[in-house]
Amino acid sequence: MSFYDIIKQPVISEKAYAGMERGAYSFWVDPKATKTEIKTAVQQAFGVTVIGISTMNVAGKRKRVGKFVGHRADRKKAVVRLAEGQKIEALEALA
After folding, report:
1. Tens of pLDDT, residue by residue, the chain (95 residues)
2. Range of the domain at 63
3. Which of 19, 48, 51, 74 might form a disulfide with 24, Cβ 3.0–4.6 angstroms?
4. Number of folded domains in the chain?
5. What gap in Å lies between CA 25 and CA 18, rounded to an integer?
6. Rounded to 5 degrees, what are φ and ψ at 7?
7. What's the CATH code of the domain at 16?
8. Hey, which bits of the chain come out as E strands?
9. What is the pTM of this model?
10. How far apart are CA 82 and CA 74, in angstroms?
11. Whole-angstrom distance, CA of residue 18 vs CA of residue 95
């Protein structure tokens, strides 16, 4: 599996942008990916040193349109902490 398969997209929210200032970047990742695979993928993709990872499974919400009730997909989020003084320039441009 390449890092393109593991890292789906960055999380775009106010809380994620606040974490960037502390060197913590959030990504939506493949639900089957392990912390070791996520660490390797981020290091290969962005050329940074990862010192810690927190992962969480996010349950999809029930959504309703008129009388029809649906369900959003379940996802996995990873918060990656980088070594002191490092940052991901590509994501800093989004903020």
Report:
1. 788 899 999 999 999 999 999 999 999 999 999 999 999 999 999 999 999 999 999 999 999 999 999 999 999 999 999 999 999 998 888 76
2. 3-92
3. 19
4. 1
5. 9
6. -90, 115
7. 3.30.70.330
8. 7-10, 24-29, 50-58, 62-65, 68-71, 75-82
9. 0.88
10. 26
11. 9
